[in-house]
Amino acid sequence: MFRHHPIPLLTLAAALAVGSGACSPRDTTDRTASLGDSAPGAGAKSAPGSRMATKTGEVRDLQAPEAARWDFDQNVWFVANINGDPFGKDNNGFIARLTPDGKVDSLKFIAGGRAGVTLNAPKGMAIVGDTIWVADIDAVRAFNKRTGAAAGSVKVSGAKFLNDITAGPDGTLYITDSGLGPKFSHPGPDRIYQIKGGKATVAFESKELAAPNGITFMEEALLIAPFMGTSLVSWSPGEKTVRPIGTGPGQQDGIEILPDNRLLVTSWADSSLFILDDGKATRVAYPVPSPADIGFDGKSRVAVPLLMENRVEFWELP
Predict the structure, then answer these.
(1) Cis ω on the peptide bond leading into residue 291 (within 30° of 0)?
(2) Is residue 253 packed enough to be buried (19+ CB in 10 Å), middle (13-18) or exposed (0-12)?
(3) Which strand (E) or helix (H) includes residue 40?
(4) Alpha-carbon gap, residue 212 to 208, rounded angstroms
(5) Are strands 243-247 and 162-167 parallel, antiparallel or unpaired?
(6) What pLDDT does 141 receive?
(7) CA 173, CA 230: separation in Å to the nearest integer?
(8) What does DSSP assign to residue 252?
(9) Residue 296, by phi and psi: left (phi above 0), alpha (psi -120 to 50) or beta?
């Protein structure tokens, strides 16, 4: 989720180290969709006459909010806050709970170092039943979404920078590892891990993933937004390569599926929220600086964490 534009890595790393910014997973409510045969398109542009999203509000005073997720059962937003170094095992990360209209209900609904909770630098989240699964550097942690109580943890051996998470129809969890290192270098490897039966294994490894960031599941395929490349790709479990599905501006982060099967994606490269339709990217919100892992309420409202701005913006799609 980070690269060298528009903010130099050293500057970004320094900012994150003092808690001013960082990185980016998926709600598993059934959204049956068809992938089709989209071809790569151009970078995100505001098409002439296109309708833009409308900003409807924001929540301030967060601490490096990296991911937002909508809970369809409780009608609340969850927002993962890194609160410091995105690589740091400092146990001070937290997850906020917000009301449907974007107001703080519980700032530290889940908090590292409290009530037996371990949470270092939470990034992507996925909701499966009553469980929130959270990507946390080299582990995936589980919490009860109703009480916030810790519900287990799975160590991901070999992981460097777990970023986003989603679940397949059978409940298997898939997690991106962006392969980032100190000072946000990119030594790799670029991987997708899977957790099945409580055990984490490497599901796929390829340079074609280009620092995989956002991930979501569409029918039989995983859709992946790269941070170090412009080509968004799909990959199906068991396959040995990826398939391009479109081109974005670069530095893509969050990815969500809209009701009409188009994709909603964020880009740090041009500070935008864009829609990928038939392989082509069209900007629908700008500027949204340092836009991380978005949440979508299944209708028209999008929560966009602005990681280095310490806030979340809410946008209404046209």
Answers:
(1) no
(2) buried
(3) none
(4) 9
(5) unpaired
(6) 98
(7) 25
(8) E
(9) beta
Residue where the block lists tokens 């050293």: 10
For the structural domain made of 9-316, what CATH number should be given?
A: 2.120.10.30
Tell how far CA 106 is from the center of its chain.
Answer: 21
DSSP one-letter code for 50: P
Tokens read off for 69: 């997720």
Global pTM reads 0.87
Reading the block at residue 102, the tokens are 């974007």
pLDDT of the residue at 49: 52
Cα distance between residue 28 and residue 250, in whole Å: 26
Q: How many CB atoms lie within 10 A of CB 229?
A: 22
Q: What pLDDT, on a 0 to 100 scale, did the predictor assign at position 68?
A: 98
- pLDDT (mean) for 45-54: 74
Provide the edge-to-edge strand list for the sheet that holds 104-111: 65-71, 76-81, 94-98, 104-111
In angstroms, the CA 228 to CA 225 distance is 9
What does the radius of gyration of the chain's CA atoms come to, in whole angstroms? 17
Arithmetic mean of pLDDT over the chain: 88
Structure tokens belonging to residue 307: 């990681």
Amino acid at 29: T
Q: Which amino acid is at 115?
A: A
CB within 8 Å of 149: residues ≥ 6 apart: 115, 143
As a whole number of Å, the end-to-end CA separation of the chain is 27
In 3D, which of 280, 249, 264, 281 has the Cα closest to residue 318? 264
- Between vectors from CA 103 to CA 101 and to CA 104, what angle results, nearest 5°? 145
Q: Say which amino acid occupies 225.
A: A
Looking at the chain, the number of H-run helices and the number of E-run strands are: 1, 24
The residues, ordered by sequence, that sit 6+ positions from 197 with a Cβ below 8 Å of its Cβ are none
Tokens found for residue 217: 């599941």
Q: H-type helices in the chain, by residue range?
A: 9-17
For the segment 234-256, the average pLDDT, to the nearest whole number, is 97
**Cis ω for the linkage preceding 189 (within 30 of 0):** yes
